[in-house]
Amino acid sequence: MFSRRCELQQLLSVLPERLERSVQNHPQLEEIVEIVLDLGRRPIARFPSGDWSMSQEPVTIADLEDAICMVGDFVDDNRAGIDRTLHRISAIRNRGGRIVGLTCRVGRAVTGSAEMARDLVSSGASLLLMGPPGVGKTTAIREVARMLADDYDRRVVIVDTSNEIAGDGDIPHPGIGRARRMQVTNVGLQHKIMIEAVENHMPETIVIDEIGTELEAAAAVTIAQRGVQLVATAHGTSVENLIKNPSLEILVGGIQSVTLGDDEARRRGVQKSVLERKGPPAFSTAIEMASRTEWRIHHSLTATIDALLAGRSPSIEIRNMKDKEGTAPEELPVLNQIENEEKDVFKKLQDNGSESKLFSLYPYQISEEFLKQAIEVLELEETIGVASDIGAADAVLTLRSKLRENVWVRNIAKFRQLPVFAIKANTLAQMIRATRAVLEMEMLRGTSSSTRKSKVEDEIDALEEARLAIEQIVIAKGQAVELLPRSAGITALQIRLAESYQLASETSGIEPKVRLRILPLLQQGSRQSSSINNTKEESSQGRVQGGTSVSKLPLLPTDFLED
C-alpha cells in the first residue's frame, strides 16, 4: 500500500530547504492543495481555508532552478511530475522560454471519492464528468477507473495525457488498481491515442481526462459508436456549456436548426424554427460536480439536451456526501442527502406556516413530460406536483426495470418510507394509470379490486383510443374523427387530452353514451350539433379507422409494484 504522507513529502522535498521547513510546521499540512512559486514574489501555499505565505523573502532564480532539478522533464504542455506519484508541476515561461514560475499541485488517490456514482459505474453507463477547477474531477475519474478494474473486473485502459491520472514515470500509480495506462507523448496526439487504445488493446472501458478539442470530441464519439464504455471529463461546468461550445457540442449529439411545419409547430406550441439534436450523445449520463461533496446527476443526457433545447428545465438528481477530514465517507451518500433535504423542507414549512397541499411525485428515469401531460389531462394540477428531487417527494414513480436493477432508489425510498410505484412502459397511458392509482389508492380502498381495475382500464382504453385517433388521423391526415360512445366522465378526459394537442372537439348524445368528435384545428366557440349530421359520412369513416386501430390494442396491465 502506498502512503499518502510519504507521497506528500516527495513533493515538499522539491522545495528549497527554507521553504520546506516553513510549510512542514503548518497545522493543516495534510490538506494542502498546491504551492505557487513566482519569480520575485513571496511563495504561497494554498489550503482549503485560504492562501498562506511561506516566507517573506521573494522567490529567486536559484529557488526555481533547485526545484526544476528535482522533477522530471517539462513536455510541450509545460507539465512535469515526480516518478510514481500523482503530483503535477506546471511551469510558467517568459517570452524567451525561461521558466519564471511553478505551480506544484498535490495529487491524491482518495478511495471512496466516486462512491456517489457507484450505481452508475456498475450499470455500465458512459459517464461524462464536468465541473470548475479544484472540485476533484481527476481524483474522481481515477477512482472510477480503479473501481471498474478491481471491483467489476472490466478491461480498463486510461489515456493519460499529462500523467495526472496514473502518475509520472513508466510504472502506473497503485491508485488506478489493475487498470492499464497509455501515455500521450504530445498533447495534440491525444485523439489518435484514444483510437489506438480501442484498436490495439481491446478495452471494455476507455478513461480520458480533459476532452477539450474538436478532434478529441470526435474520437470520443467514434469510440462510443464501437460499443466501448466511456468515462471522461470535459471543460465546462454544466451540460449547457457543452451545447454552447462549438468544439464539444458533438459530445451531446450536435445541434442543428430545424424548420417545422405549421401543424407541428402548433402542436408543440413553439416557433417554426427550433434547435434539435443531430444524433445521440456519446455519453448516456452526465455528472456536474458543483463541489467535492455535491454532484448533480443527469441520468439521461439525451433527455437533458432535448429539454434544454426546448427551453425546459431538465430533470436532475442532486447527491450530497459529507466529507470527514478528507477521508472516505463511512455513511451512505444518500443518507447525508436526505438528512440535509429534510432540514431544508422543515425550514420551508416553518417559514410558510403551513404544509403544501400538493402530493409530490418524483419521476425516476421516466419521461417527466409525459407525467406532466397526464396530470394536466386528469386536471390534477392543484393536487399533484412533480418533485425535482426525491428528498421533497411523497412517492416515487419509476420503470419496473429500473427499480430492479438500481438499488439506490429502493434504499432511499425505504429510508424515507416512500411508496414506490413502478410502471411497465414509459408511455402517456401508463403515466395516467399510475397517477390515478396514486391518488385513488385511499379513495377506492373500500371498493373491490376488480371494480377499481375495471374503472381504470376503461379510462385508459378511452384515452389510448383518443391518442391514436389524434396522432394517426387528425394530425397526420387532417381529418375529423368520431370516437366510440363513452360516459360523460370519460369523455371529459378525452376532451382534455385533445386540448393538450391544441385541437378542438364537440360532443353529441346523452348519458350513458356520449359521442365525441375531434376536429383537425383548434377553433374558438362550439359548432352546432347539426354539423355532425352534415359530415356523417366523413365521421363514420374516421370512426371506422380509429376503431380499427383501437380494437387491436391489448388492455394495458394495471398492477403496480409497490415497496
TrEMBL record:
Domain AAA+ ATPase: 123-279
Positions of the UniProt region annotated as Disordered: 527-563
Segments of skewed composition (Polar residues): 541-551
Single GO MF descriptor: ATP binding
Domain of life, source organism: Eukaryota
Keywords of the record: ATP-binding, Nucleotide-binding
Keyword Membrane applies: no
Protein's UniProt keywords contain ATP-binding: yes
Protein name, as recorded: AAA+ ATPase domain-containing protein
Organism in which the protein naturally occurs: Selaginella moellendorffii
